[in-house]
Amino acid sequence: MIPLIVLLASFAVFRLAGFGVAYFAEWQHALRAALGVMFLLTASAHWGKRRPDLVRMVPRGFGNAGVWVTMTGIAEVLIAAGLQFSQTALPVAVAAVVMLVCLFPANLKAAREG
């Protein structure tokens, strides 16, 4: 829920910034910046106090859970950065969707186990 709140709040802030910063006057730019903020927030959990929770989310069949958590955290940082550039935004957005679909089993496991 917190990532959604951060996404919506940062989108609102960037859209308001569009009244003074021409770049953010376009909603697509404000949304890409807001998604970047959200992905940086979620990436921060991969190395903070929430890391053990994320490690427990990884299904056993995937092997070394710590490596998966680290790799997805790095991917989220790269996604946050890649969304900011027009040349990379579309392929990075597709990669983000693929990654989020691939992460669904871990989220399902966490929801079932609490």
Tell me about this structure:
There is one protein chain. The chain is mainly alpha-helical and 114 residues long. The protein has one domain. It is 76% helix and 0% strand.
Count of DSSP E strands? 0
Instruction: Indicate the radius of gyration in whole angstroms.
Output: 15 Å
Helix count, per DSSP?
A: 5
Strand content: under 5%
**Poorly predicted regions:** none
Q: Give helix and strand order, one letter per element, not per position.
A: HHHHH
* Helix proportion range: over 70%
Mean pLDDT: 94
Counted up, domains total 1
Characterize the biggest β-sheet.
Answer: none
End-to-end CA span: 15 Å
Which geometry do the CA atoms define?
elongated
Structural class comes to mainly alpha
Question: Which secondary structure elements does this structure contain, and how are they paired or packed?
Answer:
Elements: H1 2-17, H2 27-44, H3 51-57, H4 65-82, H5 86-113
Helix pairs in contact: 1-2, 2-4, 3-4, 4-5
Keywords: Membrane, Transmembrane, Transmembrane helix
Transmembrane segments: 29-49, 61-83, 89-108
Protein name: DoxX family protein
